[in-house]
Design goal:
The structure is a single chain. With 207 residues, the protein is α/β, with parallel strands linked by helices. It has two domains: 4-15 and 80-205, HAD superfamily/HAD-like (Rossmann fold); 17-78, DNA polymerase, domain 1, CATH 1.10.150. 35% of the residues lie in helices and 14% in strands. The chain has helices at 17-32, 49-55, 61-72, 85-94, 107-114, 140-149, 163-171; strands at residues 4-7, 14-15, 80-81, 98-102, 125-127, 156-160, 175-179, 193-195. Helix 1 packs across helix 3 (61-72). One of its GO terms (cellular component) is cytosol. It holds the Pfam family HAD_2.
Length: 207
């Protein structure tokens, strides 16, 4: 049985898809006069914002990302915790399972987007984008988590929703559980387990 469950945030615990895409569309249109469809921008999921903006050829991506984050605050009403996540976390804590977060968000972004939902105190360890020099799909974020938490890779499972999450887990030798409820292309994302709903993760811990 696993001793530690590590979770991604966007698309896994927090439904941020509309907020991220709408604010990104606004920023790109207003700052760079670029127009992208909703579908074109779904590739932004799973990697740090600065990294994604660089792939679009945006100059001074750090400044553009700061503007994006400010605009994102206007779309907070579109963000919500996925159904079943609160119950999942509570039951895992009852079973004395170590809980962690590995996210491509910076610590400030995590605070802005996630803390208001009142779940942050349930987590024992958190690794954000500013805690590592390399990011998903590189294994460094999960390896950093294993280091600070003193957890062995074989005792942990990472729950995420993107191919970047899958690759990060694979390269760090950690089992990967696909959060199908938030995944855009679940059939093409390799995983150790696929979960239709958050509560199905609890099946791993049934005696």
């Amino acid at each position: 049985m696993y001793k530690c469950v590590i979770l991604d945030v966007d698309g896994t615990m927090l439904n941020t898809e509309k907020a991220i895409i709408y604010s990104l569309q606004q920023m790109l249109k207003e700052e760079f006069n670029r127009v992208y469809s909703y579908a074109e921008l779904t590739r932004s999921f799973g990697i740090p914002g600065v990294t994604y903006l660089e792939t679009l050829g945006i100059e001074n991506a750090k400044a553009a990302n700061d503007i994006w984050n400010e605009m994102l605050k206007d779309y907070q009403s579109f963000m919500e915790i996925f159904p079943g996540i609160r119950e999942l976390l509570s039951k895992l804590k009852e079973k004395n399972i170590l809980l962690g977060i590995v996210t491509s968000k910076t610590r400030q972004e995590l605070k802005d987007d996630f803390f208001s939902f009142g779940l942050n105190d349930l987590f024992d360890y958190v690794v954000c984008a500013d805690d590592t020099t390399k990011h998903k799909p590189n294994p460094e974020p999960i390896l950093k988590f294993l280091e600070v938490s003193n957890v062995n890779a074989r005792d942990a499972i990472y729950i995420g929703d993107t191919i970047y999450d899958s690759q990060c887990a694979k390269e760090s030798k950690v089992a990967f559980g696909l959060a199908k409820w938030g995944a855009i292309d679940p059939e093409n994302i390799p995983s150790t387990f696929k979960f239709d709903e958050p509560r199905h993760i609890l099946n791993l811990f049934e005696k």
